[in-house]
Write a structure and sequence with these properties.
Length: 176
């Protein structure tokens, strides 16, 4: 199986949850592709949801991407990014395609909102940023407060402090 990983985001995402995870996965030999649901390829990263950080240029628009080309999808958080992407039907379908084909779906911080809107949270044990606990439980998931939680092919993590463990879990899942 390919070790190509899709990062899916919009704009106003948490920079470390994209850039650091991307760096760690590349160090492990994985190829990564930045895909955006934004209407332009230039995407704005944030630090702590309030301070603008760097901008990045996406490789593809979501409309140009095919889930079959990737072994995994990684969903960075950031409140605005996650709230924007969760209601995007194409993003929901893209993530469901990974799940349905038993490929890794990895979401950190606020990104598990997309798992809720995609119908993937129900019956799963997940972690996320602590403010999502009620949302996940209302969607039928069991919330746990752990650095990384894996339930089948879904990997979730809480926040930027957990990035190393999150990236290691993704690498491990793709190395099996």
């Amino acid at each position: 199986m390919s070790n190509k990983i899709a990062f899916l985001l919009n704009s106003h995402f948490e920079q470390a949850e994209y850039a650091e995870v991307d760096r760690l996965l590349k160090e492990k030999g994985h190829e990564t592709v930045l895909i955006t649901t934004n209407d332009k390829k230039e995407v704005q990263a944030m630090e702590g949801d309030v301070d603008k950080a760097d901008t990045f240029t996406a490789d593809l628009f979501l409309s140009e991407a095919n889930a079959e080309d990737y072994a995994a999808v990684v969903l960075p958080g950031g409140t605005v990014n996650a709230d924007t992407i969760r209601i995007d039907k194409a993003a929901q379908d893209f993530v469901k395609s990974f799940y349905d084909n038993n490929k890794t779906v990895a979401a950190i911080c606020h990104a598990p909102w997309l798992l809720i809107n995609s119908g993937l949270a129900k019956g799963k044990t997940l972690t996320a940023y602590h403010s999502l606990q009620t949302d996940l439980e209302n969607a039928g998931a069991t919330f746990v407060d752990k650095q990384v939680q894996q339930d089948g092919n879904i990997i979730t993590s809480r926040n930027p402090d957990d990035i190393e463990a999150f990236a290691a879990a993704i690498d491990k899942a793709l190395s099996q």
